Amino acid sequence: MSPYDEMRSALSESPRRWLVSGAAGFIGSHLVEGLLGLGQEVVGLDDLSTGKKENLPQAADKFTFIEGDTRDEDVCLKACEGIDFILHHAAVASVVKSIEEPEMVRAVNVGGFRNILKAAEKTGVKRVVYASSSAVYGDGGAEPRKETHELQPKSPYADGKIKNEQDAQDSGLETIGLRYFNIYGPRQDPNGAYAAVIPKWVEAMGEGSDVCIFGDGETVRDFCHVSDVVQANVLAAMTQSDEVPGQVYNIGSGQATTLNELFSMIQDIKGGKSEPLYRGFREGDIRISCADITKAEGLFNFAPHMNLYEGLKNIVQFTKRAAAC
User: Fold this and answer.
1) How many angstroms separate the CA atoms of 257 and 181, rounded?
2) Tens digit of pLDDT for each residue in 298-309?
């Protein structure tokens, strides 16, 4: 039995009470689903500005939903009452949006997190696990990013994530930051100007449309399946190691993939005759981004299990099922 399986078994036998902020979003909804599957009691907080109610369980005895904004201190205090662990994922998750509307994004991403930290301290929450981002590294070279690498943010979004990490360190709470690389999986929205590349391309190729690649296609990314993000959150929240709290950890697959390689994989799975349309690089784009996950592997047994090709097949199957409903 893997350390994660052991943790899941222990949690099922001894349920806790969790708050997931950003619960109706892509990652947050998977966290809610995973925790409920382990028999946990879950409170979900979301203002539904980008999250969707249909991502949430419609009838679950152990799930409570609070529609509210983390910029509201009273809402955060209400959501944190009686909570053991917080998984904080409420944010405007867009580099482009942060460049277009920096003050709004800072108010949500930085101000909202500060309110959660204050509420957690007032209500006696045991531990806060929060979403940071690989964007903090910027363009740091070709080698996989280590947590000790110099931070070179290229956007207000990345600046805000660095501030989150600083605020967590200064809070006096038990906090663990997870620097996500490129997370993908079912329920990731393909629509809108800020959609992630995988759902956008899967939808386009399903329609036989050509796809847009910013740059020459040799941009490198580390694509990590959302099921492995659920694993990372549970392991981080429940670890008994005294070394883990107060630090940040890379969460990715540890595997580098170019956008051209990604295109070929999706094309192979979907079939069809879509072609790549190359355009200029976007402001704030990072050329090479791949995770060194040694620290998370060593300190709380993080072990990604979903390879990219299988994960893409999983998304294509999910999309077909959803279209048939």
Assistant:
1) 12
2) 999 999 999 999
Nearest to 96 by CA among 197, 180, 7: 197
- SS3 readout for 182-204: EEECCCCCCCCCCCCHHHHHHHH
Across the range 65-71, mean pLDDT stands at: 98
- Rounded to the nearest 10 degrees, the angle between the axes of helix 226-238 and helix 26-37 is 60
**Is 250 exposed, middle or buried (CB count within 10 Å of its CB: 0-12, 13-18, 19+)?**
buried
- Please tell me the predicted confidence (pLDDT) of residue 323: 63
Residue 90 burial by Cβ neighbours in a 10 Å radius (0-12, 13-18, 19+): buried
Q: Which residue has the tokens 């600046």?
A: 159
Distances (CA, A) of 87 to 27, 58, 129, 214, 294: 10, 21, 5, 32, 22
Give the span between the Cα atoms of 55 and 65, in whole angstroms. 12
Residue 193 scores a pLDDT above 70:
no
**pLDDT (mean) for 162-190:** 95
Residue 8 reports pLDDT greater than 90: yes
Active site residues: 157
* Sign of the alpha-carbon torsion through 28, 33, 38, 40: positive
Query: What b/e sequence results for 124-159 when a residue is b if at least 16 CB atoms lie within 10 Å of its CB, and e otherwise?
Result: ebebbbbbbbbbbbbebeeebbebebebebbbbbbb
* Bridge partners, residue 21, by sequence: 45, 88
- How far, CA to CA in Å, does 318 sit from each of 26, 168, 199, 297, 313? 14, 36, 11, 29, 9
Bridge partners of 133, per DSSP, are 180
What pLDDT score was predicted for residue 251? 98
E strand or H helix that includes residue 264: helix 259-270
Q: Answer yes or no: is pLDDT of 192 > 70.
A: no
Element (H, E) at 314: helix 308-324
CA dihedral sign, ordered 234, 240, 245, 249:
negative
Average pLDDT for 43-64: 93
The chain-wide mean pLDDT, for the chain, equals 93
